[in-house]
Amino acid sequence: MLEALDDDSGHCHDFLFDDELWTPCSMVAATDGWLCARKALISPAQLESPAGGVNGCRSL
User: Fold this and answer.
1) Least CB-packed of 4, 5, 21, 40 within 10 Å?
2) What is the dihedral of CA 38, 20, 46, 8, to 10 degrees?
3) What is the pTM assigned to this prediction?
4) How far apart are the C-alpha atoms of 35 and 44, rounded to whole Å?
5) Sign of the alpha-carbon torsion through 20, 24, 26, 31
6) 39: which strand partners?
7) Rounded CA gap, 39 and 22, in Å?
8) pLDDT at residue 50, as a whole number
């Protein structure tokens, strides 16, 4: 689940990697919504660690 400042906004759909260095270039975020669901690229510099759980991981 991706969280925005005002509400939950979607989920991680995929990651794009540099094909030579194997470093993450972007995360593909899928916005939730039945009317205007979209996908967007988010830079790794804009991501924060997940909150809660052991090592930042939460179980469902």
Assistant:
1) 5
2) 40
3) 0.62
4) 27
5) positive
6) 30
7) 22
8) 65
Residue pLDDT, tens place only, 15-58: 999 999 998 899 898 887 666 778 888 888 887 776 654 455 44
The structure tokens 């689940």 sit at 1
Could you write out the DSSP letters of every residue in the chain? Answer: -EE-SSSEEEEEEEEEE-TTT--EEEEEEEEP-TTT--EEEE-GGG--PPPSSBTTB---
Cβ contact 27:41 at 8 Å: yes
Statement: residue 4 has pLDDT above 70:
no
Alpha carbons 60 and 52: distance in angstroms, whole number: 12
Cα–Cα distance measured from residue 37 to residue 39, given in angstroms and rounded to the nearest whole number: 7
